[in-house]
Amino acid sequence: MSEYNKIVVGTDGSKSSMLAVKRAAAIAAAFDATLIIGCAYYENKEAASKTLRQDSVTVLGDDPALKNLESAKEAAQAVGATNIETYIKSGTPVEALMSIVNEHQADLLVVGNRGINSLTGRLLGSVPADVARQSQCDVMIVHTVN
Q1: Of 9, 43, 122, 137, which has the most beta carbons under 10 Å away?
Q2: Of all helices (H) and strands (E), which one includes residue 80?
Q3: How far apart are CA 69 and CA 87, in angstroms?
Q4: How far apart, in whole angstroms, are the C-alpha atoms of residue 128 and residue 139?
């Protein structure tokens, strides 16, 4: 079994992403690893309007990204993670997560399964499926929704 030193998890503030954060935090606590929590944002509303899911869009300067990260950090601490870093990255969730994973040379990326079984996910791709294809580290897809 590999030892995980740096674990990345993304959040958009949704219940699904918070379950993934908690799972990642438990793993980070078990391995005494650094937990890196990331949140994507868009440079402007025009870039955000190109996404299909408007309910999780964060535009630069919006408070939700910071609130999402703070809530995720608190949830991670409650599960036992102690070494936690947070980052906000520009781009789609996939672009942001892959950027964080690569910049920090993460050993594990944890994502929720939301979107992986949806029609939209099958046609256009989903965050879990896309990061699993692109990542050069281990990827854990947490069952957070049916």
Answers
A1: 9
A2: none
A3: 8
A4: 9
**pTM score:** 0.80
Q: Which residues contact 107 (CB under 8 A, 6 or more apart)?
A: 2, 3, 4, 5, 6, 7, 33, 137, 138
Mean pLDDT by 10 residues, the chain (146 residues): 86 88 97 94 56 43 77 96 93 90 95 56 58 88 76
What is the rounded CA–CA span in Å between residue 31 and residue 81?
A: 10
At 14, list the tokens.
Answer: 């949704």
In Å, how far are 1, 50, 89, 109, 126 from 10, measured between CA atoms?
24, 20, 10, 9, 14
Q: Estimate to the nearest angstrom the gap between the alpha carbon of 31 and the chain centroid.
A: 19
Quote the CA–CA distance of 78 and 21 in Å, as a whole number: 11
Nearest-angstrom CA–CA distance, 6 and 4:
6
Would you state the structure tokens that stand for residue 58, as one six-digit string? 């964060």
